[in-house]
Design a protein that fits this description.
Distance between the termini: 79 Å
CATH superfamily of the largest domain: NAD(P)-binding Rossmann-like Domain
Number of helices: 7
Radius of gyration: 28 Å
Strand content: 15-25%
Structural class: alpha/beta
Number of domains: 2
Largest sheet: 8 strands, mixed
Strand order of the largest sheet: 3-2-1-4-5-6-7-8
CATH topology of the largest domain: Rossmann fold
Helix content: 40-55%
Number of strands: 10
Length: about 270
Amino acid sequence: MNGKEIIAVVGSGTMGNGIAHISALSGYSVYLVDINNEFLDKAMSIISKNLQKQVDKGVISESKKNSALDSINTTIDISNIKGADLVIEAAPENQDIKNKIFSELDSICKPDTILASNTSSISITELSTKTNRPDKIIGMHFMNPVPIMKLVEIINGDKTSKETKNKIITFANNMGKIPVECNDYPGFVSNRILMPMIIMIFFTILAITLEIFVSEFLFLRRLFVPYCTSLLKTQKSIKIQTPKIILGIYISVNSNSSSLFIYFTPP
């Protein structure tokens, strides 16, 4: 691929405007597509602010910023991207939405257009079945924030061709990204690593919280049970043999504290 080719990005949210940003900075002619002009105006405002931050930090020049902004065309008519060489879908992570987009893109784009998805979890092979070009369907999972994070996952579907894969790797390199190739398995690479880490963090917090809970419970039992026994026995109108405690327990866990509530009732 070269800087004269057209890159279209479908979806102008956080990931979409980030992909459009780096595509324009890399010299490509860019189309940014969304369902209404309000979304597109917001996206262009964000892109402009982020480019200005790069100017202020000395990462890019003012002229390069202006050139990048001039390279981005916005549209609410998806048929306007029929001449794109590469389309990157960055719509919400919803299977039905993506299926519909890929089916529509397949019907309007030229036969050699590569259709890529920024999905982090949806099967590339499944998306390819909605088109008549499964060899040109591939995953490009960028990391957030796109202008800063270097990693991009390149996900091959069952029928993705080697030619398509090589073109996308070249595209990622031109963007200054580090492509990591993988096959179409659940979670790809990053989420297959991330999810077990999150689960381990959860169980670590749970173990610490339970340890605190047990300590608090034992302390409260020693403190309050004798008190409640004495208090209840002084109430002549209440006939009891031994006090009983009904516990209603609520544990609130966050990064700063854990909370324990115990409710006492007479027998």
